[in-house]
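Chapter summary example: a protein plus iron/sulfur cluster.
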Amino acid sequence: MILVSACLAGICCKYDGGNNGIPLIKELVRQGKAIPLCPEQLGGLPTPRMPAEIKGGSARDVLQGKASVIRNDGADVTENFVRGASEVLKFCQEMGIMCAILKSKSPSCGKGLVYDGTFKGKLVEGNGVTAQLLIDNGIEVMTEEEIEPACLLNI
Ligand code: SF4
């Protein structure tokens, strides 16, 4: 069993009320091989919601209380992002999930690249808050851009 970002499974949990559904992820969920979760919703944020980006450090800094996640109107939503990440980790540990396919570039789910906190569409090296917490706890994380379709359908 793997975890997937809910928006990749076609669930309309994106900040703008839309989704990032892709056929392979939907098929994995349909076959009962993947469970979709949205950390931002699990952290108590509504949908739709204003976009947010990590500011003042890395995702690990956010988890250690040294950086923040800020909405584009300036509101601090760090607590929601950390709570959502903790809920996702707790669920993975309870279910024995050791692998996740998460949405690239998201301040929660991204891996490798995330937006830089200026809301100007500029990417910097780093992970989303949930992706970082999962990685730090030994769960393999890949994005939808890294998956090998043939392998996954044989899970
Ligand atoms: S938090 Fe993750 S699952 Fe939720 S909408 Fe953003 S990228 Fe998708």
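Key point: DSSP finds six helices and eight strands in the chain.
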